[in-house]
Automatic annotation (TrEMBL):
Coiled coil: none annotated. The keyword Metal-binding does not apply. This is PTHD3 protein. It comes from Aramus guarauna. PANTHER family: PATCHED DOMAIN-CONTAINING PROTEIN 3, PATCHED-RELATED. The keyword Ligase does not apply. It comes from the Eukaryota.
Length: 336
């Protein structure tokens, strides 16, 4: 028969509670202290969480919802090579703008005019609508912030000068995809040609208005793009085109849609939080008063909330950027 273990015996194959024993004593002392003087253990966490939660005042400054920053490596090779191109091949958007030399997609506003079903965007009525659309864009202050080459704004479409009635005869001699040394693959869409490549009709025409993004003009260009996105729906409604349908986008559209989706989803978090908390509490409900753990579940939910408040507030105090994906953290904590 095995001999009984001595309480002071060290860790061995026969004695495996060498870790449990000091932990048991530690928590026994903690429980005794909480039972003897509970208020410090209640008030101190609340005050500490309240103080750290004050870091949320920095939330508007710490938000980082940039798509490139969130979904690309911080020191990726592509970013390094792009910086190399920027240093050694600088652009001059005010005097010598060239779209193919841009190391990024640039700052631009794009519009696509699509002709009505069964019609061509090169037809007379559609051409007039496209010219009105171009005039409406330029009337919004585009000339002030446009990217320039040779002292004039970069052309939104190489075919734009040919849309006037006085030069429309040249449209009959267009060859797709290259006509007189000009590539039309990015200017026309839905093109139908004859056997020799001569353009018979085209369903869509694309206009791209590039803006300056070097130097102090970058901020003004961004404001113009924001105003463009805000005012363009009413402009199109006022113009009332019948021969074409117009869709528009800018270099800011993707980022704004990403931020818009984020803002539309956040209000739903309150509903999901409520459902998660309710499930966490109800799952601990028992018919037996002895086995019922509702108050324990409530304390666990409050503890998880204080942990989220304290940790997020501390990170904001430390200057850590806040991205919306971390809003899922409370679900993970409550799930534990």
């Amino acid at each position: 028969m095995a001999e009984p273990r001595r309480p002071a015996e060290g860790c061995s194959c026969r004695n495996t509670d060498c870790v449990e024993r000091p932990l048991r004593r530690l928590f026994e002392g903690l429980g005794t202290g909480v039972a003897a003087c509970p208020w410090p253990f209640v008030l101190v966490p609340l005050l500490l969480s309240g103080g750290l939660g004050a870091g949320f005042v920095f939330l508007p400054q710490r938000q980082a919802n940039d798509i490139e920053g969130q979904f690309t490596p911080t020191r990726g090779p592509a970013k390094t090579e792009r910086d190399f191109v920027r240093r050694h091949f600088p652009t001059n958007d005010s005097e010598r703008f060239s779209a193919p030399r841009l190391p990024t997609e640039g700052a631009y506003a794009g519009l696509i005019a699509v002709a009505a079903e069964g019609s061509s965007v090169l037809a007379r009525a559609a051409r007039h609508d496209v010219l009105q659309l171009d005039a409406a864009v330029r009337a919004g202050g585009y000339e002030r912030v446009c990217a320039r080459s040779g002292g004039v704004c970069a052309s939104a479409n190489p075919l734009l000068p040919l849309l006037n009635d006085s030069a429309a005869a040249a449209l009959e001699n267009l060859v797709f995809p290259v006509s007189d040394g000009i590539f039309l693959g990015a200017a026309l869409g839905g093109v139908q040609t004859d056997g020799g490549g001569r353009v018979l009709s085209a369903r869509a025409l694309k206009l791209v208005y590039y803006l300056r993004e070097d130097g102090p003009a970058a901020a003004e260009s961004q404001r113009w793009l924001e105003r463009f996105l805000r005012d363009m729906p009413s402009e199109l409604e006022a113009l009332g085109f019948t021969s074409i349908q117009v869709t528009y986008f800018t270099s800011l559209s993707r980022q704004q849609e990403f931020e818009g989706n984020t803002k539309s989803v956040i209000p739903l978090f309150s509903v999901t939080y409520f459902l998660t908390i309710t499930f966490s509490i109800v799952s601990c409900l028992r018919l037996s008063c002895i086995r019922n753990n509702v108050w324990l579940a409530c304390c666990g939910v409050v503890s998880a909330g204080l942990a989220v408040l304290s940790s997020f507030g501390l990170m904001l105090f430390c200057g850590v950027p806040f991205v919306v994906t971390v809003a899922n953290a409370p679900f993970l904590i409550l799930g534990k």
